[in-house]
Predict the 3D structure of the following.
Amino acid sequence: YAESGGQVGDKGELRNETVRFNVADTFKIQADVFGHQGEVLEGEIKVGDTLNALVDVAQRTDTMRNHSATHILHKALREVLGDHVQQKGSLVDATKTRFDFTHNAPMTAEQIRRIEDIVNREILDNSATSGKVMSLEDAQKTGAMMLFGEKYGDEVRVLEIGSSKELCGGTHVSRSSQIGLVSMIGESSVGSGSRRLEALVGIEAFRALATERALVNRLVDSLKVPREQLEDRILASVEDLKSAQKKLASLNSERLALAIARHDAGQTDASD
């Protein structure tokens, strides 16, 4: 797969009996001409050679999970924020998904929670993925989402997964449950009227949650409180710290005023 539509290109090897070529990236030179960037590890590649392509399966599979998650995420964003939401760009690789979209205000914590809930419920539904190639006109009749400003050929691929239906030529999981889990990690502005949502998918999402759980456990052990009282204890500690800082600032001001008064008194005695 060559880099396209926000999905990174495949990695792997091209090889035959005498040649091994490590593929670091795959990209499009023309619509039907793919380029492979990398390094010859063994032998010498000559014009006319036949090579077998061995795709890095782990990287491809993780990328597929992220790409499929992005489709469901797009649909959930429109459901929660409104039909004005349109994809403005994306980056899908083996470790994360990044999705840019039209929206004129920061998302609230509750909106993010709802979107996360919708996406993960669709994943648990274990719906099959369907990819059908058809004419652009027929695709439009299905109601499939099309990216604004994107140039499409006479034939396109309609990709359905869960409640999402979009035009897409990328690689995807065969069932939604293979995505595993989606966890939102960031929401930010990328310009006027555009927002960016970042998420971890699959094993990366599990690892992030495990890291957060370990942090909570350390705080519970350090503060010696039950887990359900942790937030109240931290908030109380913050308020205590603010109060102590105010008292310290007040004491420092009093000490400074006293020192100035003594200094002025000393100068007066000296002049007498």
About this structure: The two ends are 93 Å apart (CA to CA). The helical segments are 57-81, 109-124, 136-142, 203-223, 230-271.
